[in-house]
Amino acid sequence: MDLHFISFLALIVLLVTPKGVYGASFTFVNRCDYTVWPGILANAGSPGLDSTGFELPKDSSRSFQAPTGWSGRFWGRTGCKFDGSGSGTCLTGDCGSGQVECNGLGAAPPATLAEFTLGTGGQDFYDVSLVDGYNMPMIVEGSGGTGLCASTGCTTDLNRQCPSELRVGDGDACKSACGAFGSPEYCCSGAYSTPATCKPSVYSEMFKAACPRSYSYAYDDATSTFTCTGADYTVTFCPSSPSQKSTPVSETPPMTVSTSQVSGSETGLTYSDNGYGYSGSSYTSSGSDSSTEAGGSGSGSGEAMLTDGSWLAGLAMGDSATTAAPCILQYAPMAMALATAVCLLVPWHHFFSSFYG
Q1: First CA to last CA distance, the chain
Q2: DSSP states of 117-144 as a string?
Q3: Does domain 22-326 have CATH number 1.10.3720.10?
Q4: Selection from 160, 295, 147, 287 nearest residue 212 by Cα
Q5: What would the pLDDT profile of 190-225 be if each residue is shown by its tens digit?
Q6: Most exposed residue of 112, 188, 306, 334, measured as fewest CB within 10 angstroms of its CB?
Q7: CA distances from 273 to 55, 62, 94, 204 (A)
Q8: Is-contact 20 118, C-beta < 8 A?
């Protein structure tokens, strides 16, 4: 092929390549009536963004550009006190750096986490996780992308309805059951380290009832992980309400947890107000997103599930490791775009050759 045709082919490939190949922008918005200090942690192997922690006054926003393939997590720190040199600590979500910048350190539980894995020419995966507990309301919304692109997060103030045994301080944050008790059945560890053995507890059910689209425990994949292709994302702290253009995030009234339900297995709990139910060992949805137990198959947000649930469970727990299956899923759309461009343009080669002599 001559130089002119190669240049023309490159232009067409550029036009048909999904926007997600070039990464995404993340915009942080603070609608709280107090200052929030967002923290940013890139997973191992992902480059750092322009900041690892910063001050975000109320009614303000700040944006960052992330490259394609980036993965990591965001959270909000509250009750921070920093001196003129930027040294200090935070009441919740503190990363232990002693500075405004977290410098590669993660949030101390409990903290509400937004987790992302940007696709390389394919789908982005994202979720809001309460697996490490909760410290403040947060939602994630995608814009400009294709696919499901549903909003997710938790707009309920769980600190106000946190059981006393999970409460931190004067209601500053709410621990997960794993963080409070450390037992394997709550932490999905040891003999409970698989989707088949680690089931929702009465505490994770409380989180799920209040925030049905957020991760409530390690294997809560089917109703909690979402996908979008080629989008930019907004992370909002203390949202007054989801965007009018977004899929609404359902909520339910506060739930009272009986400590007599803590030990043993909890079955038969149903939350009809938000469209999600729990009976025995699996979640079901009576709303528009149909899903099955973690490790199964489904539609809606469940399309992001792998057969054994292991990779997306790792995503919820902040595992930076990837597997061959997500890699293939990410690269397939770009390969298809390249193949399509070549198939369409090769027959024109003779035309360009004769035109340019």
Answers
A1: 12
A2: E--SSS-EEEEEE-TT-BSS-EEEEEES
A3: no
A4: 287
A5: 999 999 999 999 999 999 999 999 999 999 888 899
A6: 306
A7: 37, 35, 35, 17
A8: yes
